[in-house]
Amino acid sequence: MDLLTELLPAVNETLTAGNALTAVSLLLFNLTRNLNNRVAKAGAAVLACVTVAYVADAFISLEPEHAVHEIASRLQWIGIAFVPAALVHLSDALLATTGLPSRGRRRRALRLLYLVGAGFLLAAAFSDSLFQFVLASGELSIAAAPLFTLYLLYFGLATGFAFYNVQRARKRCLTRASARRMAYLQIAFLTPALGIFPYSVLLNPGDEFSLFGLLLINTANIVIILMLLFLSYPLYFFGSDIPDRLVKKQLLDFLLRGPATGLIALAVVNFTAQATRILSLRGDNFTAPAVVGAVLLWQWFVSLALPYIEKFFIYRDEDGEQISKLQTLGDRVLTHRDLSQLIAATTESICDYLRIDRAFVISFERAQPEFISKVGSLDFDEAELLEETQLLEQIVGHSKESQLANLLHWREYALIALHSNRVGAEGTQALPIGVLGMRNGSDELAEEIASGHLHAFIRRVETSLDDMRLQSEMYNLLEGLLPQFQMTRSRALQLEYRQANHALPSHNSLPERDELFEQVRAALRHYWGGSGITQSNLIKLQVVQSRIRHGELTPVNALRKLLEDSIGELRPQGERKMMSPEWTLYNILQLRFLENRKVREVARRLSMSEADLYRKQRVAIQAVTDLILQQERQQQ
Questions:
Q1: Does residue 437 contact residue 360 with C-beta atoms inside 8 Å?
Q2: Is 210 helix (H, G, I), strand (E, B) or coil?
């Protein structure tokens, strides 16, 4: 019994701080999400009330001086006074989400509740009419004052009204999933109010420090932590544009790495005093390594267990298999820079093996040949070799079988044609994908090439160029297709809840600006061919369909004409100037997309950095998007 009486205060201190930590963590997580949504904003208000109350409670548990204790207790009422009104605010937002917005009465009632809460806060801060401080067994405690009965009435009516609103919202859910999430929300809905209610006012002074009082408070704290976490699960689905599984994954990862880590650290800090007695160490010497060790072990455990936890709670059946393949793809795919570095390393190995000081690799991956790797200081300008069209055509004409037997020579360099190792249909000639150039300073190079010792190096460069081409095609395909996906969580809400007047979403509604921007950007990047324009949802726009009907154009050409005309509308009057600010947006769109020039070349012609070019390019695409949106609005 003595040990239990000794441990319970430490447990209470840990759980009280844990409640504050959980509330703060969930509030921060909420603030990083879509606060444009009414439910998200109302949920943030509720969590803010809980956070203020529990942070003050955690400070009080540290046993400050009586004067500071009184100030913290009065500040705690910022959360206690407003949490009933915040819950009504959240329930009103949930009802509005299901298509039942306030006609004025709920809005006026909500404002009145916030005013009443402000009145109770002022009473708690500047008078003893709500509660009074008393000393019991040397500890400062609080007792109810006459005004506390009115607070009980306000608390009961507000929380009951909020619970009733959530019940109405649950009945308006149309799908099983949305009804289940609303039921979860209803179960945990009153947790914030019940968790921060000042129960010690209802007890006799000093009873909260007894064995029974500590057991009751600790049990309540554990339940409140679990219910706060349970409340956060359904709440974060509202206003989210990402799929359910990503909401679950983000929340699970955040809870395990954030609040759970903090709770473990708090527990270790509060209970190391017991261990120091056993190990005969000072507490301040033992606490730091104990906390560090516990946190590291917990993070190690999370890293190992998280995939299995996600698989059990989130990914099941075919979803898990699909996600596993996508994750494997993400782990295996190398970026353009990764492959360029691999080619550069291989080129350096060739130079070391042949004892030469200059070599280079040219890739045919893009529309224009480009240098991928250079070793040593080349004694010629890159443009000189790239302009040797006859030589490059001769390289392209070389077959794979004769690449080592028939070397090409340019100045003092020996050139080897590189071919793809991925052969198409039977009998198809291997596709030329690049050139390997090496400084030919002696006859040893020809002997090494003839002996076949370079074959492994050449094969590695060819494989890297192959992967670079393949991954570039995959990236271009994804870049063109991803903007075409239109169904998001926010649109799914229209189907999950009963909308006002039972109206279904209109098929002729204008597209969202952000969504249209992504589609315009993909179409411009694939202006001369690619999934971004051939499979673009922009073709469905009325302004494009009108051009198809009246101009007898193909859908892709009609979309190209729309983009070209929209860019033309950004052209200022007068003679074109490359350095003039008013011509910047037009010049960027014309050079980058209509003339298909590289970023580096456009930045050089417009005398700006590549970073500045990307920023202004985004502004230019937004201007084209607004013009298309305006034309579509006129068509409807």
A1: yes
A2: coil
